[in-house]
Write a structure and sequence with these properties.
about 150 residues; six-stranded mixed beta sheet; 6 strands; globular; binds coenzyme A
Length: about 150
Amino acid sequence: MTRADPIQEYRKGDFLVSTDRSKLDVDGVHEFLTDCYWAKGVPKETVLRSIANSLCFGVYGAGKQVGFARVISDFATYAYIGDVFVLEAFRGHGLGKWLMECIMAHPALQGLRRWALATRDAHGLYAQFGFTPLQAPDRWMERHNPKVYADSES
Ligand SMILES: CC(C)(COP(=O)(O)OP(=O)(O)OC[C@H]1O[C@@H](n2cnc3c(N)ncnc32)[C@H](O)[C@@H]1OP(=O)(O)O)[C@@H](O)C(=O)NCCC(=O)NCCS
């Protein structure tokens, strides 16, 4: 039992958002992530480890998993949202916004001092949930290795 338990489920029409890791289509999540701009080439083993150590949100409908996001958190002060996606055929119908609503409503993620995420072009989605550009970028540092998966292949 971790702070992220018990499993949370949210329903809207024919769709379900669930934090039950056992429901995840891990092959489908890997297939999307290994081809996306931020995690290109990510090995399946890395995706599996990230899922095992995150609070994961799957979106289900039409008989399959159609979306995903995961939260890295201490469940006390800080949370980072990553690997957010909705499959292309299901975009533009409010599932991304609903997924964000479910994440922000999770009982283990209340009263945090800070939420963070990185995005190339979906700022307008996250702005609807109170996210802003860094207010004091000079106070932030990062160690980023965008070639990490390419390096691990060689
Ligand atoms: C981003 C993504 C998850 C949104 O999912 P979705 O189900 O299409 O989103 P919704 O239908 O709920 O609407 C998204 C809202 O954010 C806004 N938005 C802003 N930037 C956006 C962007 N780059 N992509 C999609 N929506 C964006 C839309 O205009 C919409 O707001 P509105 O209804 O007030 O106009 C989906 O487009 C996706 O998977 N994209 C590819 C992967 C990706 O870029 N993930 C985010 C990485 S940080």
